[in-house]
Amino acid sequence: MAGERAKYGAEAAAEFQGKLPQAFPRTMGPNAAKYVQEVVESGLTASGMITRFEKAFAEKMGLKHCVATPGCTPALAILASAFNFEPGDEIIVSPITDFGTIHGLVQQNYIPVFADTEPGSVNLNADTVAACITDRTRAVLCVHKTGIVCDMDPINTLAEKHGLIVYEDACQAIFSKYKGKYAGSLGTAGGFSFDSEKTLGSDVGGCVVTDDDELAERMRFVGQSRGAAMKPGFGRQHAVNGYAYRMTQSTAAITLAQLEIIDPNVAQRDRMIRLLTTKLAEIPGITPLSIPDYLDVYSCWMAGFSIDPGAFSCDTDTFAKECADAGLTGAGTGRYYLMPPACTFLTENAANKVYPYSTPPASRSYEYNENTCPTARDFLETFVRWSTFCERYTEEHVDMATEIVRRVAEANRK
Predict the structure, then answer these.
(1) Start-end ranges of CATH 3.40.640.10 in the chain?
(2) Any residues with CB less than 8 A from the CB of 346 and at least 6 apart, and which?
(3) What is the C-alpha to C-alpha distance for residues 368 and 391, in angstroms, rounded to an integer?
(4) 201 with 195: CB under 8 angstroms?
(5) Angle, vertex CA 295, rays to CA 292 and CA 300, nearest 5
(6) CATH 3.90.1150.10 segments of the chain
(7) How much is the pLDDT for 20?
(8) How many angstroms separate the CA atoms of 64 and 84, rounded?
(9) Pick from 376, 298, 312: nearest CA to 338
(10) Sign of the dihedral defined by the CA atoms of residues 367, 371, 375, 379, in that order
(11) Assign residue 91 a region: left if phi > 0, alpha if psi is -120 to 50, beta otherwise?
């Protein structure tokens, strides 16, 4: 192992210093302790807490099924396992995301194909997806980075033309709304994160939602029952290599309580990120993430802006550090979100033709590096973000954040 282990959640946030709010300690739903106590008092047998959470979340989403998991990475993993594609089949996915997005694809020996992002955006679009479609493409995994939903109508139209499945990583976009519909309900299925730092923050957790009865049952069979069915007189027989990605009752209890207070949380994030975007756009040389007209609700988890390299005498890293030092809690660059160079094992496996990059099952050679998606690469070179943006922001905090960025910009202006 090279370097320090990565940190997550409250452990990672403990290192942040600054004047602005961050998520921790989390605001807890008033029924959290009550629901956890129900689990304890039932002796772990009678609370039905997981079912209660799944029913409540599915109803909130307006969908038939919610399959609760112990995290966002397992959520997308059981979804990948339930599709039952062949090794070497290709899944088109956003290049700006987190490893959890592609973990399940790799586990199933599918090949991730990274579509480039739309210029000036953190997300892919129908044009960049179209450039990646081959006869081995089976699905498109759309990541709604920072809470900005991809423009899904053109992507769905393209996918229908080519007979592809479309599904969503909505881990940063819970209850963002695209043309009146929630993120996660815009394709065949959607995966969510309830990890402690996320918008609907529990101790950990995730889920998949879908209207597809067969897919929901296969996720439970492969992803939660370890691919096992009961044979009379024998017991469990494992028909496929499965997983035990089941949400715990205690996590379900906390997550259910957090779901009960999510609406004002999201509404405040939406109001504050729109105000912040307007104010940051007034600073010469600063371009905040664009909020598309189709985005009815922006459930923002991460705020960010790009700097014009020609306007300043410093590089992006220096600009971000000076923002953090001035009090913009958690400010930094996000180059590690670019998956091709971030996943060095993919680079090595593709170069060395390690299965499934061998031929067969792969139909061609693949390459993963910083040049795989040049638009995304260039975007992240000038992008400053902070993942401490949260529902605790008020107009005063927006003004404070804007002023910090303004002062740093003026101090470094050419």
Answers:
(1) 26-261
(2) 106, 112, 339, 340, 368
(3) 37
(4) yes
(5) 95
(6) 262-334+377-411
(7) 93
(8) 21
(9) 376
(10) positive
(11) beta
**What was the pLDDT predicted at 46?**
65
pLDDT, averaged across the chain: 96
Of 103, 125, 106, 156, nearest to 376 (Cα)?
125
Instruction: Go through 40-71 and write b for each residue having 16 or more CB atoms within 10 A of its CB, e for each that does not.
Output: eeeeeeebebbebbbebbbebbebebbbbbbb
pTM: 0.96
Neighbours of 135 (CB within 10 A): 7
Q: Which two tokens stand for residue 277?
A: 């975007």
| Contact (Cβ atoms closer than 8 angstroms) between residue 356 and residue 88 | yes
Mean pLDDT by 10 residues, the chain (414 residues): 69 76 94 96 86 98 98 97 96 97 98 97 98 98 98 98 98 98 98 97 96 98 94 94 95 98 98 98 98 98 98 98 96 97 97 97 96 98 96 98 98 97
Q: Which of 28, 61, 20 is nearest to 272 (CA)?
A: 20
User: Closest Cα partner for 248 from 60, 76, 40?
Assistant: 40
Two tokens, residue 361 = 């099952």
Phi-psi region of 411 (alpha: psi -120 to 50; beta: other; left: phi over 0): alpha
Distance of CA 310 to the CA centre of its chain: 32
pLDDT for 16 equals 73
Task: State how far the Cα of 91 lies from the Cα of 87, in Å rounded to an integer.
Answer: 11
Q: How far is CA 95 from the centre of its chain?
A: 12
Give, in order, the Cα–Cα distances in Å from 338 to each of 130, 216, 307, 357: 20, 31, 18, 21
Distance CA 168, CA 144 (A): 8
Q: What is the CATH number of domain 26-261?
A: 3.40.640.10
- The amino acid that residue 316 corresponds to is T
- Which residues have CB under 8 Å from 279's CB, separation 6+? 398, 399, 402
Which tens digit of pLDDT belongs to each residue from 281-309?
999 999 999 999 999 999 999 999 999 99
Cβ(384)–Cβ(333) below 8 Å: yes
CATH 3.90.1150.10 holds for 262-334+377-411: yes
Q: And the tokens for 136? A: 């081995």
Read off the amino acid at residue 411.
Answer: A
